[in-house]
Amino acid sequence: MVYVELTDQRIIGFPANRFRRLKEASEVELAKVRLEVGGTALRWESLDEDISVEGVVAGRFQLPPTP
């Protein structure tokens, strides 16, 4: 799981396996995330992955949930 604390103090979480490049990432790799674009995007440099905070909040994921 990846957790993000929003400016309104809400904490949202999403399963990393809903994104192709995060699916096989280790916890150590997932922890190496940076906020970019004025805090509106999550960036994993080593995984070459960018995800918008807005997309995550809206529930827009690349992959369907795994059973």
Give an overview of the whole structure:
With 67 residues, the chain is α+β, with helices and mostly antiparallel strands. It has one domain (2-58): Uncharacterised protein PF10387, DUF2442 (NE0471 N-terminal domain-like). It is 16% helix and 28% strand. The strands form two sheets. A three-stranded antiparallel β-sheet has the order 3-4-5. It has a two-stranded antiparallel ribbon with strand order 1-2. The two termini are 15 Å apart. The mean pLDDT is 95.
Structural topology:
Blueprint: E1 2-5, E2 11-14, H1 27-31, E3 34-36, E4 41-44, E5 49-52, H2 53-58
Antiparallel strand pairs: 1-2, 3-4, 4-5
Can I get a quick summary?
By secondary structure, this protein is of the alpha+beta class. Helices cover 16% and strands 28% of the residues.
**Order of neighbouring strands in the sheet with most strands:** 3-4-5
| Overall pLDDT | 95
**Which CATH architecture is right?**
2-Layer Sandwich
Shape: globular
Low-confidence stretches: none
* Largest sheet report: 3 strands, antiparallel
| H-E order | EEHEEEH
Number of helices: 2
Radius of gyration: 11 Å
User: What is the share of helical residues?
Assistant: 10-25%
Classified by CATH, the class is Alpha Beta
Termini separation: 15 Å
Q: Quote the CATH topology.
A: NE0471 N-terminal domain-like
The number of domains is 1
